[in-house]
Amino acid sequence: MMKRWTLIVAVIVAVALAFVPLVGSDTMIQFGINALLLATLAQSWNILGGFGGYVSFGNSVFYGLGTYGTAIAMTNYNLPFGVGLVVGVILAMIGAALVGLPILRLRGPYFAIATLGLNGAMMAIFSNLPIAGSNIGLVLPLTRNDTMFYELALGLLAACTLTVLWISRSRYGMGLIAIREDEDAAGTMGVNATLYKVSALILASIFTAVAGGIHAYWSTFVDPASAFDSTLNVRMVIMCVFGGPGTVFGPVIGSFVLSTVYEVLAAQISTAAALLFGFVIVLAVVFMPRGLADVVKGGKGLSWRYFIRNIRENRL
Amino acid sequence: MNHRITLTSAVALFAASALWAGTATAEDVITLGASVQLTGTNANTGRYYRDAYQLTIDKINAAGGVKVGDKSYMLKLDLLDNQSDVNLSVRQYVQLVSADKVNFLLGPFASNFALSDSSVAEKYQIPMVQGGGASTQIYTRGYKYVFGTLPPADDYYASTIEMMGKLDPAPKTVALVAADDSFDVSVAKGTRAHLKDAGMTVAVDETYREGSSDFSSILTQVKAANVDAILWTGHETEALNFIRQMKGLNVSPTGLSAFTVGVPTADFRKALGDDANYAFGMTSWLPDASLKDKWFGDAAQFATEFTAKYNYAPDYHAASGAADVETFVEAIEKAGTLDPAKVRDAIAGIGFDSLYAHVKYGDNGQIVLPQVVVQIQKGDMVPVYTTDFINKAMYPVPAWDKR
Amino acid sequence: MVLAQILLNGILLGGLYGLMALGMALVWGVLNIVNLAHGALIMLGGYVVYYLFTLGGIDPFLALPIAMVVMFCAGFALQWGLLNLVVRSKMLNTLLITFGLDVVLTFTAQLLFSADFRTINPSYAGSNFPLFGLTVPIVRLAAFGVAVALAAALWFVLNRMPLGRAIRATAQNLVAARLYGVNPRVLYAVTFGIGTALAGAAGGLYGMISNLTPYIGASLTAKSFVIAIIGGLANPFNVILGGIFVGVAESLTALYLGPTYTDVISFGLLVVVLVLRPKRAVRAA
Lengths: 316, 403, 285
Prior knowledge:
Chain A is mainly α. Chain A has helices at about 5-20, 20-25, 25-50, 60-75, 80-105, 110-125, 145-170, 170-180, 185-190, 195-220, 225, 230-245, 250-270, 270-285, 290-295, 305-315, and strands at about 140, 220.
């Protein structure tokens, strides 16, 4: 399925990106860290959302746990950054396991809404926790090493993408896809749906938590509103779906494209940026409901007919 | 084939994104960069900063600009809209510093933004003078490049409590209601200490989630406690809801109710109409002719010009923003160079009269100013007290049904 | 006495909460669209009433029906022109498109109405009367009455009128709707229009009790979600009851745990209700 040269191109791109800090400006690196972290979030959302078909609005819970794990370890206990990340990941994995079992029994919109509620509840809980600085948040020590953050973010995205690549070619991934297509049938075929779903959630929580921890140390300030930001979760979903859910490179490309669009809009015509961003989402859903990856698959034969066909398929 | 196209185009986009920002900085221009809330939940207050920055810069340029040695520079404002999004505002400040190559930084509105954004100033060692964040948290991190023209949040109620002691009859029991964000927690903490020193009892002490719109539970408890005074701190929209719900639930303390924000804002008084009357508030600034200014003449003229140009009256946010711009001009002329470190030292040692106040920064970078207690009397904002009574307070405040 | 007053506050506010969720529950139950722009539609309805009141001088309660008609037309157009294009797509896609709509509506409102806060402030806005030692705010009582009346009207339409039978048939099965001789496209648009009209009424009442800015939508959407889930999607009265349940729970939390814990309780309730009622939740996959 996946042609060899696609992988080669991907590797070349990854290596090229690793050298960006040597030549890029500070803004470029800054933008890069953000884009890479967002891509990681979209890619880890892809594990359960794209392959397993479970639309989660609760991945920001794991992002927040990673953020706070790192921040609490570093500010309250003066532990090094690496230890902070580990604390964050452990918190997130425990959270994913505890939450996954009851909530993954729900399906469709009910699962989505439950995860959304979970995020709201977590935000409210953390804004009442004195150890997490209540609603005021925590201030982390300042570091002037953006190159390190950039390379960390790139490495994380690479690791996450490799994991997804493995998933896409493994029995495990087949199991997830089977659950997406028809969960009951998958169950009768011997797929242990609960195990698959919970492990996918835990897997996603690891990468999401690390991204949160990196972002916390980099931005030097965390508070509940930015740690458990549900619009961040919506952004992961949009980026993944825009690129192509259930594909290996779709979420990465989707988030790079959208990050760039958003950044350019926000810098150039800032007041109308959000408005245009909204229009982009609406139009994307209408004209390319299966994401960029599907548009590209159409290749040279791509024409306006493709978009019309999409509308025909989904309209009433 | 297709994957390759997508991947390479993604990389191209990725690379192109760094190139859009203009790099040209004319030789005789000093650029001040800021990212302010022009849209989103904080836009209502963010506009004060945008307009104050622009007006002050225009005024200074009209007067010949900034003199560094024997050379004259024009000021230029590079302003971005952070859409009331903290993460975006941090990125925009980095963009301002590293891509747009602005010389110095002006601040955003609100403590939580200033808290995050000032890290950028410190990181790149570019001085930031900000007039939008009052929380003491901003100034306790040992940062060297951050200065602020709003007085410390802890002392916001100091003058009000002092005044309460001189009222007849003096309030004895107080309900303290505060939002749970950085600024308001600072205010509440300081206020508790001030109340204790003044010998007043805190009968109700409630903290609410920022952004709350329903205060009926708190108000019911305040009513049951039958307090003499309510001291409230939070955001403007919340103050608006609080006052309306006070009326709806017929809660009127026998003495007074006071608010940290909202009262000095014309928009706020307009939205409440007659119900705003009697509310006490505070401001670190009044458009008074006694505040002399090098460029505007005095604070009253600043207010007139501001209102004429933007069709709404400035409040202390705007004056504070104007003082931020003037701080840079004074410091640059004093330093005689555009070198960030030298200008930073000049700011630390500055002392000049402005339309906002006598500007002088403490060792932590924050200005210290008394808050003027104000009251809305028959629809107008009337200054009542600073260290002594300026005008007569309408006190005690009558119950809602007796107005 | 404090407890009694707090229960009363919770019940009165809960009625309005219920009305907010009513339109969302209808659209969700019948069209299977989880409308993330619902809060933005409430916000727009609030502005319509605000301008009818301030510019037109119409009493806000009389302006409510006008606003409902305006919002019905807006909702009809939205479904007809846009959402009908994607209704058969995956649930995720309808979530995304309504999220996009929410962004568009919010920022259009900001451009049109500015970020200033507006209150719908008729002369009687703060009036109240004593009842057994409690204070009853008149506007909140009236809002509660309107909410119950609209729920009753919706119940009547759904259960006793041909249009309602067609709508309910559509909820079961798209093809069945054709048996009623109604074009499903029109029916979908009408249903969405009714949902939007209810949101508009809720917005007008919200503007009288609280205040309007272009940004109130997101939190109202979240609240509507919670209530629609707790109340269920089938019966309008249950949705109102769900609203009252949440209103009372929030008030009691504020009293006993402190106002900073209300979100913990309302979101916690949502999760708990979903997890404890798996039968219905699993069925509706």
